[in-house]
Specification:
Blueprint (H helix, E strand, L loop, with lengths): L2 E3 L6 E3 L3 E2 L1 H4 L7 H13 L4 E3 L8 H9 L8 E6 L13 H15 L4 E7 L3 H6 L1 H11 L3 E7 L3 H7 L5 E7 L11 H7 L3 E5 L22 H4 L17 H9 L11 H10 L6 E2 L6 H8 L9 H15 L8
Helix pairs in contact: 2-3, 2-12
Length: 327
């Protein structure tokens, strides 16, 4: 395993880390026993960082992480998120009292004394512009409830706003071969300021594994079925905003990236890790096989300059105009 600095926090995290939305809920059937075994397996392979949120399974993924990392609090880092249990547009949802209650509830579920990285979970843009929520997080940091904080954003504009606040240590961004816009302005600025980048939706909800056909039907409780067009939350969180059929067609045209690499998925993750500004990728998982598959990115051959340029042209000519929603 290789490790990279998490911005200027002083923490180093595994290049391939993992998100826990899938084991909490909204990705079809889950199995807690498989989830716990998978987390332990990932730790055994050197993974030391997991991302979660208070709304993943209504706190269930936080509870699973507490069980799996008991006694490892000093060397297994956990990032969690808040605000989406309430109205993300309501300023009162970001008051000291409300955020403290969210924080303390997460601490109880995680069974930890402090949260390593506390992130605002895709708030409204106006909340970030107003900036009072950052004063609240500064206060929680002074109280020792959180060690560092960051923001999970939906758009490049929101990320740039966050960079104006000096104590924002990380940005969590939708970033993959289908979503390359952050490379233009956001990533260079973040890198200059020593802000870490967590790349979420790195496989575009599974499209970049190359395993789906247009006929595939997802389970009813899977967001890839109920949020394909942004019915429940931001459309970009599902299939990177492309829609399933468009995404399958585009993924077919990308199968060449697997040539000389373990799998298409490992190649897609490798491409992200080839960007120097990225701290880590945080793909999801449900079982040990998926952990193994994602860890193959560490063995995958780096992309050449020619391949990088080919993928940039592909994004500009074939993909960018199909993305829906603000990004």
């Amino acid at each position: 395993m290789k490790y990279r600095a998490l911005g200027n926090t002083g923490i180093k995290v595994s290049e391939v880390s993992f998100g826990t939305w899938a084991i909490g809920g909204d990705w079809g059937r889950t199995n807690d026993e498989d989830a716990l075994k998978s987390i332990q397996y990932a730790i055994d392979q050197g993974v030391n960082f997991f991302d979660t949120a208070d709304v993943y399974g209504n706190g269930h993924s936080e509870e699973l992480l507490a069980k799996a990392t008991k006694g490892m609090e000093d060397n297994i880092y956990i990032a969690t998120k808040f605000c989406r249990q309430g109205d993300i547009y309501d300023p009162n949802n970001y008051s000291y009292e409300t955020v403290r209650s969210y924080c303390e509830a997460s601490l109880r579920r995680l069974n930890r004394e402090a949260i390593d990285l506390y992130q605002i979970h895709c708030p409204a843009t106006e909340i970030l512009k107003d900036g009072q929520v950052f004063d609240v997080l500064d206060q929680l940091q002074r109280e020792g409830k959180i060690k560092h904080y960051g923001v999970s954003v939906e758009t490049v504009e929101e990320g740039v706003i966050c960079l104006e606040y000096p104590n924002v240590k990380t940005l969590q961004v939708i970033f993959n071969i289908f979503r390359q816009k952050p490379l233009e302005v956001l990533f260079p600025e973040a890198y200059k300021k020593g802000v870490g980048i967590l790349a979420r939706v790195p496989l575009a909800s599974g499209l970049l594994t190359g395993k789906y056909s247009k006929e595939h039907v997802f389970e009813e409780n899977d967001h890839r079925r109920f949020n394909e067009n942004g019915e429940a939350f931001n459309v970009g969180e599902t299939f990177a905003g492309l829609g399933f059929k468009n995404g399958v067609e585009l993924a077919e045209q990308l199968k060449w990236i697997a040539e000389g690499r373990p799998t298409m998925a490992s190649a897609a993750l490798r491409w992200i890790l080839d960007q120097q500004e990225v701290t880590c990728v945080i793909p999801g998982f449900k079982n040990i096989q998926q952990i193994d598959s994602n860890l193959q990115a560490l063995e995958a051959r780096t992309f050449s300059q020619e391949e990088q340029e080919k993928l940039r042209t592909f994004y500009e000519e074939k993909v960018e105009h199909l993305i829906r929603g603000a990004y």
